[in-house]
Amino acid sequence: MKPAAAAFVERDGEILLIQRSDNGKWSMPGGTMEYGESMTTCVVRETLEETGIQIECTGLVGVFTDPLHRIEYDNGEVRQQFAIVYRADYVAGEPTRSPESPRVEWIPRTDTPGLTMDPSQRMRLDWAMEHPDTVRLDPA
Fold first, then answer.
1. CA nearest 87: which of 120, 47, 56?
2. Degrees, nearest 5: CA angle 60-100-31
3. What is the pLDDT of residues 81-91, one digit of tens each?
4. What pLDDT, in 10s, does the model give residues 43-80?
5. The pLDDT value given to residue 106
6. How far is 65 from 71, CA to CA, in rounded Å?
7. 104 and 50 in contact (C-beta within 8 Å)?
8. Is the distance from CB of 30 to CB of 44 less than 8 angstroms?
9. Dist. CA 73–CA 80, nearest whole Å
């Protein structure tokens, strides 16, 4: 299992989102932790790589795990969902495409319900928007 981190970044009522190149679905920027880095370093690095946006982590949205949710990649790798979602502030940069994210946009909060997302990504985003002062812990 590789831990993953994602960033919930909101600025002026808009959420920083990417459209993934592997499945065309929208998601918060993020990715898997590399050996020798912290989760916080991971999410800052991944967000910059995927979006061109520099962020500063300010807190946690929550911890999201589900033993029944498996992620199967084209290369045959299978993972169980395990993600930590951070709240983050915009620091600098302009939305910039990458090989992993052909679309990077500041999406109005009101437009997010109409975006095609993986159900686990939808759950994370909805929690972040609906519970700004509560950290979600996965059920025991």
1. 56
2. 30
3. 789 999 999 99
4. 999 999 999 999 999 999 999 987 776 777 778 877 67
5. 98
6. 12
7. yes
8. no
9. 12
Residue among 69, 68, 50, 52 at smallest CA distance from 5: 50
Q: Would you give the DSSP letter of residue 22?
A: T
CB atoms within 10 A of CB 65: 15
Of 56, 132, 41, 42, nearest in space to 93 by CA = 56
Digit-coded pLDDT (tens) for 25-43 = 999 999 999 999 999 999 9
Q: Which residues contact 78 (CB under 8 A, 6 or more apart)?
A: 70, 71, 72
Which of 37, 137, 35, 52 has its CA nearest to residue 103?
A: 52
Residue with tokens 């982590």: 57
Q: Tell me the Cα Rg of the chain.
A: 14
| Residue 1: pLDDT over 70 | no
Give the Cα separation of 94 and 130 in Å (integer): 26
> Alpha-carbon distance 17 to 11, whole Å?
12
The CATH code of domain 4-130 reads 3.90.79.10
**What gap in Å lies between CA 121 and CA 46, rounded to an integer?**
16
